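Q: Predict the bound structure with manganese (II) ion.
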Amino acid sequence: MRLCRFDDNRLGVVRGPAEAPVVHDVTAILEALPSFRYPLPDHDPLVAALPSLRPQIEALADGAPAMPLAGLRLLPPVASPRKIVAAPVNYRLHHDEALADQAIHHGTNILPIDKAGLFLKAPSSLIGPSDPVVIRFPEARNDHEIELVAVIGRPANRVSRDQALAHVAGYSIGLDMTVRGTEERSMRKSCDSYTVLGPWMVTADEIADPSALDLHLLVNGETRQKTSTAHLLRDVATLIEKASAFYTLMPGDLLFTGTPEGVAPVTSGDVMTARISGIGQMEITVC
Ligand code: MN
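A: Predicted complex:
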């Protein structure tokens, strides 16, 4: 199943061919979620309820008219992630290009992922694909980083690698936008709009092997990044094991798995096209 959020916080099931996807409005299912009073829960309520609500969501979609996806304003498919966890250098060739270009990295230590661990991006930086990435520091270099994103489906605390994928609700395409500079990653990668998630979430049952997906990022139609998640140094399951050794991952938490080689700057007016096989494609403008 492919779930999207669109327009004024509506929920949709995406079906149909890749070249002309359609959306079935299933917003009515949100009435089945618990209503919360302050304080708000420590997880995303829809993602947490997905296993139990899924049959009703499918039934609602069957009975809802098909709307063309084109023309809808796509929001991030997960509304309320409480944590956005991200892997630093996690592809060998990106590690090599980072080492070779220390000027870009301003002497930032390029540590292997097993030494550096993971970092966090501010949830306030999250946007959907229909909103632009707004360059915050035009005088600096602002890079695109396409990444496979795993959406956590149920609490994961000290989960072993062989159990990890059972905690994944689904997958999306992510852009981990980055200001190059001397500041901590958590600051440079948390500017408003510097975390893009979309175009929808594909539930985990449709992704047989998250280590066999093709990633492709183009800027203004020119290829910048193109590889397979087969080249991840630490795969999704290992990243979940590593993260959950330190903290409990909760439903709706996002795990950005790292970007491959080919990171390069974008400036106002650029259009980024991000594709991952088995998930889909999205276009994001930069302004
Ligand atoms: Mn990244």
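A: The mean pLDDT is 95.
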